[in-house]
Recover the amino acids of this structure.
């Protein structure tokens, strides 16, 4: 062998050695952890349950293969190795795809690791060598792969030792307030915008600011006054404007609309029954009051999570006590009971057709995730079945937080109306009474029919009826004396009571008439409609009673169904089950594993909560509201920024985890969070800071910026989207659905500005209002609007929000459904919006009302006045000319049209299939609310010139200038 040949062989051996060393490191760093995560659950963790005969615990067994009797790994030849081929999922004719589930398939990078490892000889160092390799490379791998985060109770050692990219952990770091040079606005300094657009003109700014803080348009007079003051002193006029708007009672309504999107407010429970939550409106109004009073944000948190515990503590009851009454209890504070309605905002029901434990777990899962999303910007439900796939949130922490609610029970609690609460409009309760009488009359008629059928039954069976007659006599006396067979029973029939008497006497069932004896198909249907109707009325009547949609601490009562408002038991601490929270295997309430105690997210440090029945939520609320919790303050200031700019600093306000969008300006986010704490949680102070920045006051016109659009390194022009993302210009936004409606009512003069109170029912599309909405075993009542325009024309915030009935106008303009937390409203542009806004009856009614208002005012220039009310400005010469011409043209056409007054429906026919017999039946649903209905202004009420002007107004209401803020 020559010297050159020897040297060449040496180089090959050296290269092979280096390649083997790299492959060993790759195995330790990537391949072996991947096998443990994806493969060993079926191929090694349990020797008795190894699938396909393929054992991957050792190199020998892994290479040997399984039932196919073919070597699974061929060192140096990945393309011939079944392990690699099966993992690619591209060779299904020969090898079953692995892992079997599509959701668990390997990424291209992971496949590359396996391929490179096999190509490098598929080395498989033993455990001691793996530890040595890992230790030698620990520092290098940490810098490249991320850091290990200490948490509590991981379900597997592999998850506990997983690594996280530092940039994905930004939200858990302590808030650090960056320094800002004196004399500079902190927001503008930290945004550091180059070549910004100039300030918006005063008319544009007051419209933007007024909608942002009140959800309503400024009046023409307010616009004119602001324009005048702005000329003299822009900074002072803006400061005065912001202060005035923050002092407006409508500010709380505007902020409440944002908050209720996040908390999923609705006036019904959803699911199959969709019972109305009669007193949920009191929580809605609590939110309005809290923002109007500028309640410190930490207190706002505590009241919603643990207000009832604060109530008991304030009343003198020891916070960690069981059931020992206070010696000198203070008067109850209804506000604190009302606040905890937050915990019950999610959809929920319990019927006899489901398992109570499942329904209970549904509430616990919902409230745990809701608290995480709302206050911590963390969707925790991902950790319900397994340790979080992306964030350092183990399943243990999920159930520790859930344990804080395991002694939380649902109830509508007595809570006297506050002097600040609006209790006007309670007289509308009178429209429920005819429905109650109708249902009671039907059940009484059917009761008489069953008694008559019972006599026929005895004749047909030729049985002695003496015992029955005696039972009927006793039943009549029992009912006459006010007796009810069951607690809170709305109707007790003689027939059913008589049967119950004979049952208690142990008389054989074949000796007395069966239930619903002799019923025809329509009788079955009418009986169910009436019985269920009375049941639903109990929930609706709750709206006018001094109860809070709330919670209490205690043992979990044994309840199989909930078909009426819930009341606290007399002994909440001694009656029921003391739930012991445990990690649930797969989230199944019937598969508890390891018990856990109340706690919070261990990624932020260990903290011990009380394990007593009461006080758990208080501890959790204090932890969330603590100034040391970096998630909480970042979450709320991020939402505030979104509400003002249309884009959040951290792009997913409900998700600060690694899958959420990272902050575009992390220092600004921290400055805002730190400042909120310095301002004692004052939300109004944060508005002042944001709205006095140049960034907020900037024009939305990119053409007006100090420099023209620039070209980037790749020669492309800076786009409008780039300019908006960088805050070079202000991002225009379309009004919310509620703002569009409220703005139209405002400029027409129809808006009732009254704050708070029971929900109102505006007119909605008649087909939707009258639709036969199926609920458990019967029909829900039709949507009947309030009788008086002043009741119907309240702000959209107060509209009755039934989960099963969506207002088509609101829905098409992206009002979110209340089943899930809405972190940011979507804005779509779709064809149905045209039909709804331009052709919709509601919009035409507003156009007619606007035209009538202007005509009644008798201004010197009608078209100019319409523009002032609609846009807050004078029309241009061309606009005025076009509108005037159209007005005159339409006047001629309208003069030839005759209109009739519409008549509201007093009944609606319902057709159904009776579920007991499968046969069809029909009934007439009466609509007593329409008996006193006073319609809005109708075309027949005005002359042709007013109707023609309404056509001009309709065009303006459909314009971008009206429904967009710039």
């Amino acid at each position: 062998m020559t010297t050159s040949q020897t040297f060449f062989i040496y180089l090959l051996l050296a290269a092979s050695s280096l390649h083997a060393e790299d492959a060993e490191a790759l195995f330790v760093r990537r391949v072996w952890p991947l096998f443990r995560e994806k493969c060993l659950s079926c191929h090694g963790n349990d020797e008795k349950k190894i699938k396909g005969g393929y054992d991957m615990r050792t190199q020998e067994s892994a290479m040997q293969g399984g039932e196919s009797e073919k070597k699974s790994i061929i060192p140096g030849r990945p393309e011939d190795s079944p392990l690699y081929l099966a993992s690619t999922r591209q060779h299904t004719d020969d090898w079953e795809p692995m892992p079997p589930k599509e959701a668990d398939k390997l990424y291209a990078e992971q496949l590359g690791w396996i391929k490179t490892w096999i190509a490098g000889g598929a080395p498989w160092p033993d455990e001691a060598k793996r530890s040595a390799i890992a230790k030698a490379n620990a520092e290098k791998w940490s810098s490249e792969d991320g850091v290990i985060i200490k948490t509590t109770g991981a379900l597997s050692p592999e998850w506990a030792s997983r690594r996280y990219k530092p940039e994905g952990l930004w939200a858990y770091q302590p808030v650090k307030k960056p320094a800002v040079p004196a004399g500079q606005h902190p927001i503008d300094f930290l945004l550091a915008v180059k070549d910004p657009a100039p300030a918006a003109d005063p008319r544009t700014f007051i419209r933007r600011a007024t909608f942002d803080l009140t959800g309503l348009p400024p009046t023409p007079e307010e616009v004119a006054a602001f324009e005048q003051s702005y000329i003299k002193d822009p900074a002072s006029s803006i400061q005065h404007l912001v202060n005035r708007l923050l002092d407006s009672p409508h500010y709380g309504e505007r902020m409440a609309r944002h908050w209720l999107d996040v908390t999923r407010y609705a006036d019904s429970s959803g699911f199959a029954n969709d019972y109305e939550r009669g007193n949920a409106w009191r929580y809605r109004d609590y939110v309005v009051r809290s923002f109007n009073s500028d309640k410190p944000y930490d207190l706002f948190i505590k009241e919603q999570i643990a207000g009832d515990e604060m109530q008991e503590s304030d009343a003198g009851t020891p916070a960690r006590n069981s059931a020992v009454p206070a010696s000198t209890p203070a008067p109850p504070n209804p506000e604190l009971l009302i606040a905890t309605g937050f915990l019950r905002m999610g959809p929920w029901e319990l019927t006899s057709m489901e398992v109570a434990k499942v329904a209970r777990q549904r509430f616990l899962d919902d409230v745990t995730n809701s608290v995480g999303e709302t206050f911590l910007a963390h969707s925790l439900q991902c950790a319900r079945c397994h340790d979080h796939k992306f964030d350092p949130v183990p399943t243990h922490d999920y159930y520790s937080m859930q344990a804080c609610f395991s002694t939380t029970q649902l109830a509508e609690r007595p809570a006297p109306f506050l002097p600040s609460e609006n209790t006007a409009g309670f007289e509308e309760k009178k429209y429920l009474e005819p429905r109650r009488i109708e249902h009671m009359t039907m059940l009484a008629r059917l009761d008489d029919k069953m008694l008559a059928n019972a006599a026929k039954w005895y004749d047909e069976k030729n049985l002695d009826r003496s015992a029955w007659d005696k039972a009927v006599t006793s039943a009549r006396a029992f009912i006459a004396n006010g007796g009810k067979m069951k607690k809170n029973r709305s109707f007790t029939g003689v027939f059913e009571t008589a049967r119950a008497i004979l049952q208690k006497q142990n008389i054989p069932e074949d000796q007395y008439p069966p239930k619903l004896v002799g019923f025809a198909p329509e009788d079955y249907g009418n009986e169910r409609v009436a019985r269920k109707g009375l049941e639903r009325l109990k929930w609706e009547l709750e709206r006018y009673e001094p109860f809070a949609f709330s919670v209490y601490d205690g043992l979990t009562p044994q309840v199989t169904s909930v078909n009426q408002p819930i009341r606290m038991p007399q002994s909440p601490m001694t009656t029921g089950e003391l739930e012991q929270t445990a990690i649930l295997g797969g989230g199944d309430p019937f598969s508890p594993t390891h018990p856990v105690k109340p706690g919070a997210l261990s990624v932020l440090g260990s903290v011990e909560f009380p394990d007593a029945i009461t006080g758990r939520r208080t501890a959790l609320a204090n932890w969330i509201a603590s100034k040391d919790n970096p998630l909480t303050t970042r979450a709320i200031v991020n939402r505030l920024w979104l509400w003002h700019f249309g884009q959040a600093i951290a792009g997913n306000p409900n998700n600060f985890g690694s899958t959420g969008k990272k902050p575009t300006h992390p220092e600004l986010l921290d400055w805002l969070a730190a400042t909120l704490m310095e301002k004692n949680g004052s939300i109004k102070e944060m508005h002042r800071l944001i709205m006095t920045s140049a960034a907020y006051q900037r024009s939305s016109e990119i053409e007006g910026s100090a420099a023209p659009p620039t070209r980037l390194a790749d020669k492309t022009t800076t786009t409008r989207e780039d300019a908006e993302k960088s805050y070079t210009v202000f991002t225009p936004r379309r009004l919310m659905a509620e703002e569009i409606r409220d703005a139209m009512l405002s400029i027409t003069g129809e808006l009732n500005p009254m704050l708070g109170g029971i929900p109102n029912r505006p007119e909605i599309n008649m087909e939707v209002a009258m639709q036969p909405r199926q609920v458990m075993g019967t029909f829900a009542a039709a949507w009947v609007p309030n009788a008086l325009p002043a009741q119907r024309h309240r702000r959209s915030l107060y509209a009755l929000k039934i989960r099963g009935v969506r207002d088509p106008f609101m829905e098409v303009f992206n009002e979110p459904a209340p089943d899930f937390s809405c972190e940011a409203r979507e804005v779509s542009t779709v064809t149905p919006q045209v039909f709804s806004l331009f052709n919709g009856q509601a919009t035409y009614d507003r156009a007619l009302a606007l035209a009538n208002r202007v005509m009644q005012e008798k201004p010197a220039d009608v078209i100019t006045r319409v523009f002032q009310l609609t846009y807050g400005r004078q029309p241009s010469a061309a606009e005025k000319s076009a509108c005037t011409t159209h007005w005159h043209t339409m006047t001629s056409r309208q003069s030839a049209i005759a209109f009739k007054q519409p008549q509201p429906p007093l009944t609606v026919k319902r057709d159904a299939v009776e579920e007991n017999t499968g046969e069809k039946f029909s009934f007439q649903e009466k609509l007593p609310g329409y008996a006193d209905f006073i319609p809005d202004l109708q075309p027949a009420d005005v002359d042709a010139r007013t109707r023609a002007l309404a056509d001009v107004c309709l065009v303006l209401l459909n314009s971008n200038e009206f429904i967009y803020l710039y």
